[in-house]
């Protein structure tokens, strides 16, 4: 079995690319938004927070790590029988030099990280087109949002995927 991790910025093309990759390799596909969104929204509301805020300190303190842990546990169960594609930003993790080794140690299978990205103007258009409520705050404060996010490729071996204009999967 093998674990594929698809990471990158919001609207960078993780979900579409991850789905295509899962089909190509015959893997289970786990996307952090799809797998955890209803629970996160209910929890945010119960905590008196905006159900669509994924950029606040409160979200990151309360939900970020449990969301990823839920995905990891689901991946572990499936990796016993099938390859798995995990899709999520993994912003902090993907910048840690030892994350690839940590993943391989935790899951005890080969791990391949795919970093997807595209120019900010393409990401903005995708956010506008998909019209998800979780993107509204980003779009309303686009310049400050861009300044607050790191979009650097991982500092370890990975596959770089450009999902910009001309990528038929995205346009």
CATH superfamily: P-loop containing nucleotide triphosphate hydrolases
Per CATH, the class reads Alpha Beta
Q: β content, as a range?
A: 5-15%
Query: Could you list the spans in which at least 5 consecutive residues all have pLDDT below 50?
Result: none
Estimated structural class: alpha/beta
Give the N-to-C terminal Cα separation. Answer: 32 Å
Shape: globular
Count all strands and give the number: 5
Radius of gyration: 16 Å
- What is the average per-residue confidence, as pLDDT, rounded to a whole number? 91
CATH architecture: 3-Layer(aba) Sandwich
Order of helices and strands: EHEHHEHEHHHE
Percent helix among the residues?
40-55%
**CATH fold group:** Rossmann fold
Strand order of the largest sheet: 2-3-1-4-5
Question: Helix count?
Answer: 7
What does this protein look like?
This protein has 7 helices and 5 strands. It is of the alpha/beta class and 171 residues long. The chain has one domain: P-loop containing nucleotide triphosphate hydrolases (Rossmann fold, 3-Layer(aba) Sandwich). The chain has a 5-stranded parallel beta sheet with strand order 2-3-1-4-5, with helices on both faces. α2 crosses α3.
């Amino acid at each position: 079995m093998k674990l594929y991790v698809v990471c990158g910025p919001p609207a960078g093309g993780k979900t579409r690319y991850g789905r295509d990759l899962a089909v190509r390799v015959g893997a289970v596909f786990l996307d952090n938004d799809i797998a955890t969104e209803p629970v996160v929204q209910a929890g945010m509301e119960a905590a008196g927070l905006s159900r669509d805020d994924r950029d606040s300190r409160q979200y990151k303190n309360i939900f970020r790590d449990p969301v990823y842990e839920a995905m990891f546990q689901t991946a572990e169960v499936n990796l016993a029988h099938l390859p798995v594609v995990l899709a999520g930003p993994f912003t902090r993790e993907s910048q840690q030099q030892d994350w690839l080794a940590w993943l391989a140690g935790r899951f005890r299978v080969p791990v391949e990280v795919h970093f997807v990205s595209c120019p900010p103007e393409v990401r903005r258009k995708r956010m506008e087109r998909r019209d998800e409520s979780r993107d509204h705050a980003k779009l309303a404060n686009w310049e400050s949002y861009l300044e607050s996010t790191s979009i650097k490729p991982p500092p370890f071996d990975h596959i770089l995927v450009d999902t910009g204009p001309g990528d038929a999967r995205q346009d």
